[in-house]
From TrEMBL:
Protein name per its UniProtKB record: Uracil phosphoribosyltransferase
Its biological purpose: Catalyzes the conversion of uracil and 5-phospho-alpha-D-ribose 1-diphosphate (PRPP) to UMP and diphosphate.
Residues annotated for uracil binding in this entry: 197, 202-204
Cofactor comment: Binds 1 Mg(2+) ion per subunit. The magnesium is bound as Mg-PRPP.
InterPro entries: PRTase-like (IPR029057), PRTase_dom (IPR000836), Upp_B (IPR034332), UPRT (IPR005765), UPRTase/APRTase (IPR050054)
Keyword rRNA-binding: no
Regulation: Allosterically activated by GTP.
Similarity-based family: Belongs to the UPRTase family.
EC number assigned by the record: 2.4.2.9
């Protein structure tokens, strides 16, 4: 597994505002959207392309276009939904599949409550969107899900990551023979006793969409 921490002053600037507890939901949604587009630029570095020829007003030129089958973008509900528009801005022809997952706040175990994905992902590149990589349970389960369906190349885009979650992913994905990359805006310090990323930004889903009971 490869972890890429995107080091760019604009990313750091937007992430700082996102972390701020006084940032309201509309601003939080806008910042998350903008951050994903910046991260997606890095995350799509190895998106598959075909060579094509294009005729300019002057001459023929060699170029590239996205290969088929098109990549599949998979936001993990709820909070990953706040990253979808920003991703699709960069990959407008990608297809979108959905995974609904929630972490039990007592046991910190992730469970899946919704799934709308193609049955066969053979030969597909998948981009998983989830703002928080905390214990890693949610992302590990999501990646297993996609691999079981045949995905052969997975890139996760996470706004924030914790070292504990990355270690868990490394262990759980050990032996997987497909490339897995995590692109993140920052590697934070640690998790607290409730499994929240420190310093983090709090509960991403709640900050995007409000607290559910
Ligand atoms: O790495 P983990 O320890 O598994 O935690 C990360 C997950 O927790 C949050 O989801 P949450 O369960 O709060 O659901 P929500 O997006 O609906 O708020 C977050 O959006 C991740 O999906
Ligand atoms: O810090 C965290 C950890 C898990 N989920 C969140 O939304 N935030
Ligand atoms: Mg949440």
């Amino acid at each position: 597994m490869r972890i890429h921490v995107a080091d760019h002053p604009l990313i750091a600037h937007k992430l700082t505002a996102l972390r701020d507890e006084t940032t309201d939901s509309p601003t939080f949604r806008r910042l998350a959207d903008e951050l994903v587009t910046l991260l997606a630029y890095e995350a799509t570095r190895d998106v598959r392309v075909d060579e094509v020829t294009v005729t300019t007003p002057v001459a023929e030129a060699k170029g590239t276009k996205l290969a088929s089958p098109k990549p599949l973008v998979v936001p993990i509900l709820r909070a990953g939904l706040g990253m979808l528009d920003g991703m699709m801005r960069l990959l407008p022809t990608a297809e979108v599949g959905f995974l609904g997952m929630v972490r039990n706040e007592d046991t910190l175990e992730a469970s899946t409550y919704a799934e709308r994905l193609p049955d066969d992902l053979s030969g597909r590149q998948c981009y998983v969107l989830d703002p928080m990589l905390a214990t890693g349970g949610t992302l590990a389960a999501a990646i297993r899900f996609l691999v079981d369906r045949g995905a052969d190349h997975i890139t996760a885009i996470c706004l924030l990551s914790a070292p504990e979650g990355c270690d868990r992913l490394e262990k759980e994905l050990d032996g997987l023979d497909i490339p897995v990359t995590v692109v993140t805006a920052a590697m934070d310090e640690k998790l607290n006793e409730k499994g929240y990323i420190v310093p983090g930004l709090g509960d991403a889903g709640d900050r995007l969409y409000g607290v559910v009971g």
